[in-house]
Amino acid sequence: DIEDGAEGETKQTYTTIKIDEGLISISFDPDDDTSFPPVVLDVTPDSVAGKHDIEPGMWLVGYQGAEDDGMRLTGVWTPAQAAAWVAAMDEQQVRPLTLKFRRKSCLENCVWVPPELEKLGLQMVQDKTVTPPRIAADLSEDRRWRKAGVSNGNFIVDINGVDLTDMSILDPKVRQLLGMRPSVITFRPFGKEGEEAQALAQRMNEEKSFMLQQPVMLNGLPSALVLETEVKMDHKDGDLLGTRVPRPCAALPPVNHPQALNLRLARSGLMDVRGIVKNRMKGDDGDEDDFAGRPSLLGRMEDIMEGRTFRTVDLLQAGGQVGG
């Protein structure tokens, strides 16, 4: 399984569906006759494919009809070929029909090998116990693999839609697949899919270590304050827990951007003049906005409060007005 998307939902890398009747209900780009493998463009939600979590962006890597002895590879098809094939299968009503799809992980790196490239220039770990095949070094003259983001120690997990996770470099089938042209080779920093979380954590730690050597992090926080901020994040918020009040941060907002200084009152609470939030009342269980837990009045506040309550305060920077 692979991690798919920001929600961390775990989904299978390869998905096989069987269509016994009806339309395939999967579309590909009929005008794309240059790229490969065929990428799913759209799926009908109520179809067999839609019910099996086939989504746009997945690859069609194989099919098997009633008269086929095994799965036929489609990894080197173009989307135009796939679109024409789907139309032909629907017109001829070839059923049952088994389709195999592949979902790409955010940690994977796909490199397309052109027909004119004779030698890959990859040195592999020659060990039958290492599965999938693992890269030892990039020996290409132009360092094409390193330029493509492939690092020493990466694994080859797929070639043209064929799963290599249980194969070693000494497997004759792997050698045959590596000699195919054109081809698309999929690399990733971990071998077995159960090792993905460990690889992701390692990559995040490497990126963090690199950024800590810079003066400022990508989010604008000075690197010297990162550890202090992380300590604050580990503490409980007390009355601020579940509120809309921004968490205290070691980085102060810029005073020359008044919109960044706006604060909203806590849900189900009151804020005093010191900025301390205290829980006072709670709304109904189904009241998501908790209007019952906030002070309310009829009309405009300006009409009810005494005059001259609201004032405009000039914000100055180097003697010049920047807001107010």
Write the layout of secondary structure elements.
Layout: E1 2-4, E2 9-11, E3 14-19, E4 26-27, E5 42-43, H1 48-51, E6 59-64, E7 72-73, H2 79-92, E8 97-102, E9 109-113, E10 122-124, E11 135-138, H3 144-147, E12 155-159, E13 162-163, H4 172-178, E14 183-188, H5 196-212, H6 226-234, E15 269-271, E16 277-279, H7 301-304, E17 315-317, E18 320-323
Antiparallel strand pairs: 1-2, 3-8, 4-5, 6-7, 6-8, 9-14, 10-11, 12-13, 12-14, 15-16, 17-18
Organism: Zooxanthella nutricula
Protein name: PDZ domain-containing protein
What does this structure look like?
This is PDZ domain-containing protein. The chain is an alpha+beta fold and 324 residues long. The chain folds into 3 domains: 2-102, PDZ domain (Pdz3 Domain, Roll); 109-194, PDZ domain (Pdz3 Domain, Roll), CATH 2.30.42.10; 233-323, no CATH class. Helices cover 18% and strands 21% of the residues. The chain contains 7 helices and 18 strands. The strands form 7 sheets. A 4-stranded antiparallel beta sheet has the order 3-8-6-7, with no helix packed on it. It has a 4-stranded antiparallel beta sheet with strand order 9-14-12-13, with no helix packed on it. Strand 1 (2-4) and strand 2 form a beta hairpin. The two termini are 54 Å apart. Mean pLDDT is 78; it is low at 1-10, 262-267 and 286-295.
Q: What features would you highlight for this structure?
A:
Pdz3 Domain, four-stranded antiparallel sheet, PDZ domain-containing protein, 3 domains, 21% strand, disordered N terminus, alpha+beta, 324 residues
